[in-house]
Design brief:
single chain, alpha+beta, 8-stranded antiparallel beta sheet, 32% helix, 32% strand
Length: 155
């Protein structure tokens, strides 16, 4: 049996380098594309400032919890949002003023300001339409000098 040894030439080495770095670049581009496609936005714009306000946020959360209010997750009804709000003792919270700011998670579009109208005791529906898609909501409920702020999300 006669074995013929093949020599590795500069051409072969060049092909190996191109293939090696081509695979690395393809994986990097794939992972970057997946990361950007699933990025939901920032939690806080400045972590240092957020850390300075942390105790204030905890105190505000305790104060709001003492109200005993329960707010449902916002849901879509056609092109509007619906929210159910219960006061203490699970009674419908009527005559509240509800506003929300809907922001796209990655800032692809301008934010949408929403105002709500009571449709039944404790049931509120947005006056404005909310375009389809995923939105982060900053909701503010005001009733009798009490303010209840919360964050939510709707798809």
């Amino acid at each position: 049996m006669n074995h013929i040894k093949k020599k590795i030439t500069g051409f072969h080495v060049t092909l190996m380098f191109v293939a090696f770095f081509g695979v690395i670049m393809a994986v990097n581009f794939l992972m970057a594309g997946l990361a950007l496609g699933s990025f939901s936005g920032t939690v806080v714009d400045n972590s240092y400032v957020a850390s300075q306000k942390y105790n204030e946020w905890l105190e505000e959360g305790r104060k709001q919890a003492a109200y005993g209010w329960t707010v449902s997750e916002p849901s879509r009804s056609a092109d509007r949002l619906q929210i159910s709000v219960l006061g203490s003792e699970d009674a419908p919270l009527s005559n509240a003023r509800i506003n929300a700011l809907a922001e796209h998670p990655v800032g692809r579009t301008e934010g949408v300001n929403l105002t709500f109208e009571e449709t039944a005791p404790g049931q509120y529906r947005s006056n404005e339409q909310l375009p389809a898609g995923r939105w982060k909501l900053k909701i503010s409920i005001v009733k009798d000098q009490r303010t209840f702020d919360l964050r939510s999300e709707v798809k």
